């Protein structure tokens, strides 16, 4: 069967996307134009590994959001997939107002935003879902500057934290020039090197370094691009290991309220997320008492148990000053 195959976390991510897009357009009902941008729109055929369940990709999910619908949609995709994506979507969604832009989204985003210049006043949502460190900071800057209305373009950005394991070796090997350049382009600065050096020196544990990389992106989105809230959602693979964070950036009170609720609901419903939240809370409580976080079989069962009455799985916390940043501010 031709197409791309994904893990369960992709279905969970797309489920969150569908919920938020429904809420976003509903909240924008009074606007005569509602805009959706997808910088890594993907291929037309997607399946869940193992079960071969068909997954509706982000482009289809956006086009299926109809109460009310997005009035204008822009899909960016690499040239060798863009034509097939355009043809399939036009066949399946005739009459819809969308455009597929072939090429590297970090280059085509400027054409996209120029074409949408007459609608800079309209509520706009951007889904940015790369497979690696392929989003440039300059692209995020362009999106943040695009709107002339009261609020910025809302961003939902994938930060693939497992890439730090792949690209930043801790076994004595050197970081390649290409990987270093990609990370600097993604963050728009090379402060990631400070975190990396602390990881190599043993000053940061692997999980702490991962949190610092995520925090650095959130901190920059808020401090340098002016977003008021940045919500991180940790996505886990089948072994309950973190593979990426979805960072939602908004300066609209309705946006932060809606996504807080959706993140909380997702963590209740998805067992791996629920277990990770409970594990982290118990680790923090034990470490505060100077106890190593070791779990018995009964405690492990409690971590994986269904949500209990009144239990909360998501609370917003602002990013902190990045590690080592006080030496540079």
Please, could you describe this protein's structure?
With 329 residues, this protein is α/β, with parallel strands linked by helices. It has a single domain (4-327), classed as 3-Layer(aba) Sandwich (Rossmann fold), CATH 3.40.50. 45% of the residues lie in helices and 15% in strands. The protein contains 12 helices and 9 strands. The strands form 2 sheets. It has a 7-stranded mixed sheet, with helices on both faces. α4 (105-115) runs parallel beside α5. It starts with a strand and ends in a 26-residue tail after the last helix.
Keywords:
329 residues, Rossmann fold, two-stranded parallel ribbon, 12 helices, 9 strands, globular
Topology diagram in text:
Layout: E1 4-6, H1 8-27, E2 35-38, E3 46-48, H2 58-64, E4 72-77, H3 79-92, E5 98-102, H4 105-115, E6 124-128, H5 137-146, E7 154-159, H6 162-167, H7 177-187, H8 192-200, H9 206-223, E8 229-236, E9 242-250, H10 253-269, H11 271-288, H12 297-303
Parallel strand pairs: 1-3, 2-4, 2-6, 4-5, 6-7
Antiparallel strand pairs: 7-9, 8-9
Helix pairs in contact: 1-10, 4-5, 8-9, 10-11
């Amino acid at each position: 069967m031709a197409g791309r195959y994904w893990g369960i976390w992709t279905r969970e991510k797309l489920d969150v996307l569908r919920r938020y897009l429904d809420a976003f357009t509903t909240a924008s009902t009074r606007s005569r134009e509602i805009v959706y941008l997808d910088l890594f729109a993907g291929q037309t055929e997607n399946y869940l590994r193992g079960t071969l369940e068909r997954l509706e990709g982000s482009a289809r999910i956006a086009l299926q959001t109809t109460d009310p619908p997005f009035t204008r949609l822009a899909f960016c995709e690499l040239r060798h997939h863009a034509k097939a994506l355009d043809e399939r979507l036009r066949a399946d969604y005739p009459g819809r107002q969308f455009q597929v832009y072939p090429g590297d989204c970090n280059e085509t985003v400027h054409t996209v935003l120029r074409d949408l210049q007459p609608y800079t006043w309209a509520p706009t949502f951007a889904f940015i879902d790369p497979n690696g460190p392929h989003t440039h900071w300059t692209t995020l800057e362009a999106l943040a500057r695009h709107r002339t209305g009261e609020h910025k373009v809302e961003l939902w950005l994938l930060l693939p934290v497992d890439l730090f394991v792949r690209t930043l070796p801790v076994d004595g090997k050197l970081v390649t020039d290409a990987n270093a350049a990609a990370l600097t382009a993604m963050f728009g600065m090379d402060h990631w090197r400070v975190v990396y050096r602390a990881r190599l020196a043993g000053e940061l544990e692997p999980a702490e370094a991962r949190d610092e990389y995520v925090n650095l992106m959130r901190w920059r989105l808020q401090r340098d691009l002016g977003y008021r809230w940045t919500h991180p959602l940790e996505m886990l693979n089948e072994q309950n290991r973190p593979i990426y964070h979805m960072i939602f950036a908004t300066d609209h009170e309705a946006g932060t309220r809606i996504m807080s609720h959706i993140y909380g609901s997702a963590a209740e419903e998805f067992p791996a997320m629920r277990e990770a939240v409970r594990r982290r809370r118990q680790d923090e409580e034990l470490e505060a008492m100077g106890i190593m976080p070791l779990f018995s079989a009964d405690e492990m069962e409690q971590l994986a148990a269904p949500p209990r009455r009144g239990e909360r799985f998501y609370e917003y916390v602002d990013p902190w000053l990045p590690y080592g940043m006080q030496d540079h501010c």
